[in-house]
Amino acid sequence: MTYFHKHDAIAERVNGSIPAVLNAIAQRYIGEHPQHGVQLRIHRQDGFRRTGDYRYEMDLDRRWPNAKAGQYVNVWGKLWSEQDTLLNTSLNCQSPVTIYANGDEVFKSELLQELFPERRTAIPLPVRRGWNDIVLRFAKTEVGFGGTYGTGSFKNFPLHFLTPGPDREGEEGWLYSEPFDEEEGLRLPDRDMHEADTGLSWFPRRQWSEAESKAGNFGRIFGEKQTSGIVYAWSRLERLRPSAEPIILEGRHDGTLTLYANGIQVYASPDSGTFRIELQNIQSGIDLIACSRTAAAEAEPNHTDLAVANVSAIIWGFRLYDPQVGAWRLRLPYHVAGYAGKWLYAGVFPKGREPDPSRMIATSRVFDDGGSGTYWQADLPGGAIRPFLENTHYGKWNYPLGVTLLGLLRVGRELNRPAYIHYTLDHIGLSSSLDRYALWDRQTYGAAGVNNQLSAIDSLDDCGSFGATMLEAMEHGDVPDGRAVADRIARYMTEDQERLPDGAFYRVRGSGETRQETMWCDDLYMSTPFLMRYGRLTGEHAHWDDAINQFLRFRDYLFLPEQGIMSHVYDFVRGRATGIPWGRGNGWVLFSLTELLNILPEEHERREELLAFYRDLCRGFLALQGENGLWHQVLDRTDSYEETSCTSMFVYAFARGIRLGWLEEPEAYLDSVRKAWKGMTRISIDWKGNIYGVCRGSGYSFTALYYRDDLGWNLNDTHGIGIVLLAGTELLRLNRELSDLPDAKKESAHRGIGTAAQV
Question: Residues 6 or more apart from 309 whose CB is under 8 A from it?
Fold first, then answer.
């Protein structure tokens, strides 16, 4: 199989230099995935709540309890796509529904779907590059109204629908119309239409009522929640023209007010009133924090009762004025899509539980309000502010990215490229720093806008691979909340992950109907490197015992002794292993065993047994290497394509075994490593650092034809990028040690492996 013209191979450009290959791959990856952080968006709290699988509960019976049978409601959202494609979505419907994409009907429910709402229907959604209008038109019946709709598989990339039309640009969520009759017309809205031009009223409501507007900013946002408590507002003040003059703030407030400028108190009053403040020596922006307690809180009991009963009676808030006319401006401290206001708001905090103002200048923290916690809000009806991670790679937490970042981390170390290490630490740190927030976000809104897998752990895939890389990254620099995240992962593996009676991990829930009651050799990588590193971190070597037990038990179920390799899956429903030696699955096993042996002490009582297993596997894999140096997608099927990720894992494990003396007859493995790396640089890595021939994420089957024909490869798949980098770093380390050998041994070794920079 040819992935590209031989002239485009990286081997044609770098004269065998391993560092040149690794730099090309690392730089291409980082360049394609820049360090964009989270996007803050408005989320209407009275909009549709999401389920744990990231779909939206379109509960129209609750929204419109007085709707009549035969009436309709339109649910309208929009979705951005980078290309023309089909997206996986799914639906459970409580009533008849028709789905439209960009004005075209793409789905109409059938009788059985409407009568049995527990039936989940997969709907391929056709989208084109750019914005796509999606409309669901539900019909009211006597027994139901609405449904649950959204992303088909949230583990990979959950779909966040945004509010359509020009009126609420940037908000997250859907609009839903008032009920309407068929004779009123069934015209579909489109992205250029203002809500008023559709002929329907749309919800959640967009603006404050007149009475709410008069209540003051704190009053209309927090008045219905609690009349006795402390709230904060945060804005950024910027000087608009160079001047040595002080900045003057004037304003008035209803209720108490304390103002802080860059953490320093500049004004305080226990009563309503007006103020004038001069801020000296301000040449750049400052963070303004306003803190207030409602005036109604100190009123007589009958006044307090009135305030609780009628939000418009709570006159509580503040305003700032610029008497210098154009000397300064206020802006949001962070951009919030869908919000034109100048302040972020947080509360209500009981007296004695209010945060220190200096700790309010943060967007990754849930604030302790004495209850379930609170976060920033906007001056809009139901206007919660939520962070969403909308990148495809940077900042996301998933298992292929775990091995990708591990590769970048080690390449940075081996090539002395601090930028690669910093990029990796920043990516991991963004994920870990959002962990506490994401757990709160999921509890509050049904599904988190960030860390979708880490916040909803229900499998080893969700935590072990990335968690192991995080633990290694913690040895190179600061990882915010890394230890807390690691502890949570360890608790999941120890207490929650399903196990057989012998302690072996297996899959029961959380991975789809076809993966129930199964053991996958992949899961050795999703668990044991983390357990080994966590045991080293904590000194609790029971985690090492657990990792060792996994290898020995997985060997019992999956090892194919005639070939010395592993079956991909054991199916407990059918009572047998599949017998198919999938390449990457076998790669995970050998790679993970190599990681375990690298940490396990030489004197450990089970080390020799594990080394024997490692050598058995190496012999089995060595015998199946393809003629071009790569291993095949199905290891014993030369008619399957040459697969890059498993090849890289075998190179990594062989090279480390040679270097550390684990292999008893290293010469054949030296030849194998040389042949494999040469093959990859000619067949599956082009001169720009693109990586070809990496199998996509898999299911499982009892037939090799599934793996050969149906399980194709992707370009630059993160299942392969990191492990290619790791293979290269192991070659560099091996070459470096070979170069330090005495001359007699060096000559023999170089016949198999090349120089320190070349293979």
Answer: none
The CB-side HSE value for 419 (13 A sphere, CA atoms) comes to 8
Q: Which of 166-180, 309-323, 515-529, 560-574 has the lowest mean pLDDT?
A: 309-323
The pLDDT value recorded for residue 310 is: 37
The residues, any chain, with a CB within 8 Å of residue 212's CB and separated by 6 or more, are 219, 220, 311, 312, 381
What is the Cα gyration radius of the chain?
Answer: 30
Query: Residue 402 and residue 398: Cα distance in Å, rounded?
Result: 6
Quote the CA–CA distance of 664 and 704 in Å, as a whole number.
Answer: 33
The answer to whether the beta carbons of residues 575 and 557 sit under 8 Å apart is no
Closest CA to 529 of 601, 484, 470: 470
> Looking up tokens 């990859």, which residue turns up?
680
From residue 757, alpha-carbon distances to 417, 445, 612, 676, 740 in Å are 16, 53, 31, 16, 13
**Is the model's pLDDT at 21 over the cut of 90?**
yes
**750 pLDDT higher than 80:** no
**Torsion angles phi and psi, residue 753, rounded to 5:** -130, -20
Helix (H, G, I), strand (E, B) or coil at 687: coil
Residue 639, H or E segment: none
Residues 472-520 have pLDDT tens digits of 999 999 999 999 999 999 999 999 999 999 999 999 864 455 558 999 9
The pLDDT assigned to 285 comes to: 85
Q: Is the pLDDT of residue 422 over 60?
A: yes
The answer to whether residues 554 and 502 touch, using CB atoms and an 8 Å cutoff, is no
Measured CA to CA, the distance from residue 589 to residue 469 in angstroms comes to: 17
Helix (H, G, I), strand (E, B) or coil at 660: helix
Contact 266, 260 (CB under 8 A): yes
Those residues with Cβ within 8 angstroms of residue 397's Cβ, 6 or more apart along the chain or in another chain: 431, 451, 453, 454, 466
Q: Give the list of residues 6+ apart from residue 618 with CB closer than 8 angstroms, or none.
A: 590, 653, 654, 657, 663, 669
- Which contiguous run of DSSP H or E holds residue 480? none
Which two structure tokens, joined as six digits, stand for 668?
A: 């054949």
Q: What's this model's pTM, rounded to 2 decimal places?
A: 0.92
Question: In whole angstroms, what is the distance from residue 666 CA to residue 738 CA?
Answer: 13
Please tell me the predicted confidence (pLDDT) of residue 313.
Answer: 46
Burial 224-233 (b: 16+ CB within 10 A, else e): eebbbbbbbb
Q: Is 73 helix (H, G, I), strand (E, B) or coil?
A: strand
Contact partners, residue 246, CB within 8 Å, separation at least 6:
278, 279, 280, 281, 282
Distance CA 515, CA 461 (A): 13
For residue 674, which of 658, 685, 695, 687 has the smallest C-alpha distance? Answer: 658
- For residue 385, give Cα distances in angstroms to 54, 67, 79, 227, 489: 18, 31, 19, 22, 28
Structure tokens at 173: 């969520």
Res 116 pLDDT > 50:
yes
Q: Any idea which of 229-238, 305-314, 609-618 has the lowest mean pLDDT?
A: 305-314
CA distance 86 to 106: 11
Complete DSSP assignment for 312-344:
GG---EEEEE-TTSSSEEEE-SS-EET---S-E
The H-assigned helical ranges of 59-165 are 60-63, 111-115
CA-to-CA dists, residue 84 to 33, 74, 126, 735, 758, angstroms: 21, 25, 8, 46, 42
What is the share, in percent, of the chain residues with pLDDT greater than 70? 93
Token pair listed for 735: 């070459």
Supply 232's token pair: 């904060």
Number of H helices, E strands in the chain: 21, 31
How far is C-alpha 12 from the chain's CA centre? Answer: 37
